[in-house]
Design a protein that fits this description.
The complex is a heterodimer. By secondary structure, chain A is an alpha/beta fold. Chain A contains 15 helices and 17 strands. Chains A and B meet through strand 5, helix 2, helix 3, helix 10 and helix 11 of A and helix 8 and helix 9 of B.
C-alpha cells in the first residue's frame, strides 16, 4: 500500500510559461519515509498536490505519469492523506471531534464506526482535550496535530506532509514532529517536505532532492546524500545539517538611545515591559507564543496605541517630534524614522508591481522622482529583485516576498528597523541574505529589533536579547 | 467592523425546551411567523406578535436582558427610524398631538411610524431567537439531513463562517501594515475613503486566498467526491418539531385575526 511511481512526471499550471516541476523519475515503495528537499521554487508543493490528486486535469498540463499503487492519484484519493502548512485554513469544523469526523463522513464510513475511529485518531496523536473542544481554542501546534488526526483517521496508505511545522514556534513544531513519529503506522508511506532538515531527519530514512530546473538531483540515505551533495545543497538553500553560518558580531559599540519603552504594556496581550533600543545594535526579542512579542513590535513601531506605560523616541531618532509618542506621528513621518516588517509579507503589499511597491514609501515622504528612481534601483539590485521589478507582489515566492517586504521598509531609510519573525519558513539562502543585510544596517549605525523564535538567527546576529514571559 | 456584528454564537441555555428543537423546525417556524406579519401595515398585529415573542423567550432559555444586549443595534435603529419618520414623513393627517415650532406631530404620522417600527422588530426578533439558540454546526447538519440541502452548500457555508472572526484581526493587521508603509489619510475625507477601499480590497484578496486553501484542504479529505456521505451527528425531526412550526403559524394567524377583528388591519397589497 502507498507505493508511488513517477515516470518523467511534469506539471505546468495553466497560464504559466514555466513548468512547476518536470522530468521527475522516482519510485517509492510502501512504508518508506522520504524527506523531499529542493530550493524554493523546485516544485515540491506541486508534486505533493499531484500525489494527493489535487491537480484537476483542466488546471494545467501534465507530462509523463504519476501513479499510486498503479492508479491515477485522482482515482486513488482515499489512499492518500495530506497535511498542509497553514493551520487556520485546513480545519473545517468548529469542534475538534467533528473535524476529524468530517473526512470519515465524506468517505461514507458507517455512522457507528465514525466516533470510535475519531477517538482512536485523537488518542494516537496524543490529543489532550475532549473532542467537543472548539478548534478555535487550540494553539497552532495543537491545530496541526488535529489536522494530522483528521488525515490519519482515514487510514491512508500514503501520508503527505507539506511543511506542517513552518508556521509554528519551536515547542509547537516539536509536538507535531513527535505526533508524526508516534502516530504514523510502520506500513504507511510518508513523504515530508520540510526546510529544517536536522529536525526532520529522525522521521525519515531516505532523502530526495528536486532540481529547480527539473529532475531529481540526489536520492538515497540521508548520510550519503549530504556527504555527496552537502555543499551544493547548502548553496541552493537547503538547510544541510551541521553547516553553521558564521556569526556577524557588531563592529562598534552601540550608539545613542533611539527608543525607550517604559512600563510599556497592552492588557491582556503584553505585560508591562521596560526596554531600550540603541543605534548600531541588533536586539532580539524572544519568548514563547502568547507572550506578546508581536504586540511589542507593533507598539515599538508606532502602529498601536499603548494600553499602559509609554514609548518615547529620543531626539537622535525624531528631532523635534520627540515630544510626541510614535503612535501619534503621521505615517510619512513615522516611516522615515521607524520601519516595520510584518510576519506575513502580504499584509504590507499595497501596489500592483514590485517597482511601485518600493517607490511607495519614498514618494509618500515627498522625495523628488529622480531620488525615488535611484533608491528603487539600488534596492532592486541589492535584494536580487531586479528580474521581478514588473511582477505583482502577490505572485512572488515566500523568499522573494520576504526580501521585498524588508526592502520596502528600507526604502525610506529609517534609523530603526523592527522585524517580526523575518526568517519564518525561509530557505537557507534567503536566511543568510537577511542576516547579512541586517548586520550591514546595524554596522552602518541603524538600530535593529527582531522578534524571533529562531535560535540560529539569534546566534548569528543578536548583540543583546530580551525574553518576554508568558502572562 | 465590530465584534457585535460577527459574534452570533448561541447565548441561550441549551437545555430549554424550545431551544432543543430541530434547527430546521426553528427556522421554518420563524420564517412562517415573520411572513404572516409582513402582510399588514397596522401597528396592532406586530404589537401582539412582539408580546407573543417576548412571552415564549423563557421557553427558548433566553433571558430578556441578554436579548436586549444582543438586539441593541436593532433597538437603536428602530428608535432612529421612529424619530425620523415622526419629524419628516409627508403624511400629516389626523389630529395634531404636538406643535412646537417647525415640529408638527399628528396622530396619522405617529400611527404609521409606530406600525413600521413595530413591524421591523416583530419580523426581526424570531430570527434573532433562532440564531441565538442554534449552534451553527447543528444548523448545517439539520439543513442537510432534514431539509435536504446540498452538503456542498451547507458545509461550505459553515466552514466559511468559521473564518469570519479571523477577518476582524486581519482588518486590524492590514490597517497597521498600511501605516507602516507610510500610507495614512490624515484629515482628508477623500483620502480616507480611498484608504478604506484599498483596505477592503486587500481584505477580500486575503479572504479569497484563504478560502481557496480551505477548499483544497476539504477536497483532500474527500469532500464532495461523489461518494454518498454518512453522518456522524444525527439530527431528528420529531412530532414536537412539527408542532412548533404549526404553533408558530397559528400564533401568527391569531395576531392577524385580532387586528382584523379590531378593524385596524391594513393589507400590504391592495
Amino acid at each position: 500500500m502507498g507505493a508511488v511511481s513517477l515516470r518523467g512526471f511534469g506539471w505546468r499550471h495553466a497560464g504559466r510559461r514555466q513548468w512547476a516541476v518536470r522530468g521527475v523519475d522516482l519510485r517509492i515503495e510502501g512504508g518508506e519515509r522520504v524527506l523531499l528537499l529542493g530550493a524554493s521554487g523546485a516544485g515540491k508543493s506541486t508534486l505533493l498536490g499531484a500525489l494527493a490528486g489535487l491537480l484537476p486535469e483542466d488546471s494545467g498540463e501534465q507530462e509523463g505519469t504519476v501513479e499510486i499503487d498503479g492508479l491515477d492519484p485522482r482515482k486513488a484519493r482515499e489512499r492518500v492523506g495530506i497535511v498542509f502548512q497553514d493551520p487556520e485554513s485546513q480545519l473545517v469544523m468548529a469542534r475538534c471531534g467533528d473535524d476529524v469526523a468530517f473526512g470519515l463522513e465524506n468517505r461514507g464510513v458507517p455512522a457507528d464506526e465514525i466516533w470510535p475511529r475519531v477517538d482512536e485518531a485523537l488518542r494516537r496523536i496524543g490529543f489532550p482535550y475532549h473532542r467537543d473542544r472548539p478548534t478555535a481554542a487550540l494553539s497552532g501546534g495543537e491545530q496541526q496535530r488535529l489536522a494530522l488526526a483528521g488525515a490519519l483517521a482515514l487510514r491512508p496508505g500514503l501520508l503527505l506532509l507539506d511543511e506542517p511545522t513552518a508556521n509554528l514556534d519551536p515547542a509547537g513544531a516539536a509536538l507535531v514532529r513527535r505526533a508524526v513519529a508516534d502516530a504514523v503506522d510502520a506500513d504507511t508511506t510518508l513523504i515530508l517536505v520540510e526546510h529544517r532538515v536536522a529536525e526532520a531527519l529522525p522521521l525519515v530514512d531516505r532523502v530526495v532532492v528536486l532540481e529547480p530546473g527539473g529532475g531529481v538531483r540526489a536520492d538515497g540515505a540521508p548520510d550519503a546524500v549530504f556527504a555527496a551533495h552537502g555543499d551544493a545543497l547548502a548553496d541552493a538553500g537547503v538547510w544541510v545539517p551541521g553547516r553553521t553560518v558564521p556569526p556577524r558580531r557588531a563592529t562598534a559599540t552601540p550608539g545613542a538611545v533611539l527608543l525607550t519603552a517604559d512600563r510599556l504594556g497592552l492588557p491582556p496581550r503584553l505585560a508591562p515591559t521596560d526596554l531600550e533600543v540603541r543605534a548600531g545594535e541588533a536586539l532580539a526579542v524572544l519568548g514563547p507564543n502568547g507572550a506578546g512579542k508581536s504586540t511589542l513590535a507593533l507598539l515599538l513601531g508606532g502602529l498601536l496605541r499603548p494600553g499602559g506605560g509609554a514609548v518615547t523616541a529620543s531626539e537622535a531618532l525624531a528631532g523635534r517630534d520627540a515630544d510626541a509618542p510614535p503612535h501619534r506621528w503621521r505615517a510619512p513621518a513615522l516611516v522615515r524614522r521607524i520601519g516595520s516588517v510584518f510576519q506575513d509579507p502580504e499584509h504590507q503589499f499595497v501596489t500592483g508591481s514590485v517597482r511601485d511597491e518600493l517607490a511607495l514609501g519614498p514618494r509618500r515622504t515627498g522625495q523628488p522622482e529622480p531620488v525615488v528612481a535611484a533608491t528603487v534601483d539600488a534596492l532592486l539590485a541589492r535584494l536580487r529583485l531586479d528580474r521581478l521589478a514588473g511582477a505583482n507582489p502577490y505572485t512572488l515566492s515566500g523568499g522573494e516576498a520576504r526580501r521585498l517586504s524588508v526592502a520596502t521598509a528600507l526604502a525610506t531609510a529609517p534609523r530603526l528597523l523592527i522585524c517580526d519573525e523575518p526568517t519564518f519558513g525561509q530557505d537557507r539562502r534567503t536566511w543568510r541574505e537577511l542576516v547579512d543585510l541586517l548586520a550591514e544596517l546595524r554596522d552602518a549605525g541603524h538600530g535593529v529589533v527582531t522578534v524571533t523564535h529562531d535560535p540560529d538567527f539569534v546566534a548569528a546576529l543578536a548583540d543583546r536579547t530580551v525574553t518576554l514571559e508568558r502572562r | 467592523m465590530s465584534p457585535a456584528m460577527i459574534s452570533a454564537g448561541p447565548i441561550a441555555a441549551a437545555g430549554a425546551p424550545l431551544a432543543r428543537r430541530n434547527p430546521v423546525a426553528k427556522l421554518a417556524a420563524a420564517l412562517l411567523f415573520s411572513l404572516l406579519l409582513i402582510a399588514t401595515l397596522d401597528p396592532v398585529a406586530p404589537a401582539i406578535a412582539i408580546a407573543i415573542e417576548l412571552a415564549v423567550l423563557p421557553l427558548f432559555g433566553i433571558r430578556h436582558r441578554v436579548l436586549a444586549r444582543r438586539a441593541w443595534p436593532l433597538l437603536a435603529g428602530a428608535g432612529g427610524i421612529l424619530v425620523t419618520l415622526v419629524l419628516f414623513a409627508a403624511d400629516r393627517s389626523g389630529p395634531v398631538l404636538l406643535a412646537a415650532g417647525p415640529v408638527l406631530v399628528t396622530q396619522g404620522v405617529l400611527v404609521t411610524a409606530l406600525g413600521l417600527v413595530l413591524r421591523m422588530l416583530a419580523v426581526a426578533l424570531p430570527g434573532i431567537i433562532v440564531f441565538a439558540t442554534t449552534d451553527a454546526t447543528d444548523l448545517a447538519d439539520a439543513l442537510i439531513q432534514n431539509a435536504k440541502a446540498p452538503a456542498r452548500f451547507a458545509l461550505g457555508a459553515l466552514a466559511a463562517f468559521r473564518l469570519v472572526p479571523l477577518l476582524e484581526e486581519e482588518w486590524r493587521m492590514i490597517s497597521m501594515a498600511r501605516r507602516a508603509r507610510g500610507v495614512d489619510a490624515g484629515r482628508n475625507p477623500v483620502a480616507k475613503l480611498r484608504l478604506f477601499a484599498s483596505t477592503v480590497f486587500a481584505l477580500l484578496v486575503g479572504a479569497i486566498r484563504r478560502g481557496t486553501r480551505l477548499a483544497v484542504a476539504m477536497d483532500a479529505r474527500g469532500f464532495d467526491a461523489g461518494i454518498p456521505r454518512t453522518v456522524a451527528r444525527r439530527q431528528h425531526f420529531t412530532r414536537a418539531d412539527t408542532l412548533l412550526v404549526v404553533a408558530a403559524g397559528a400564533l401568527g394567524a391569531a395576531a392577524l385575526a385580532v387586528s382584523v377583528l379590531l378593524g385596524t388591519f391594513r393589507p400590504l397589497l391592495g
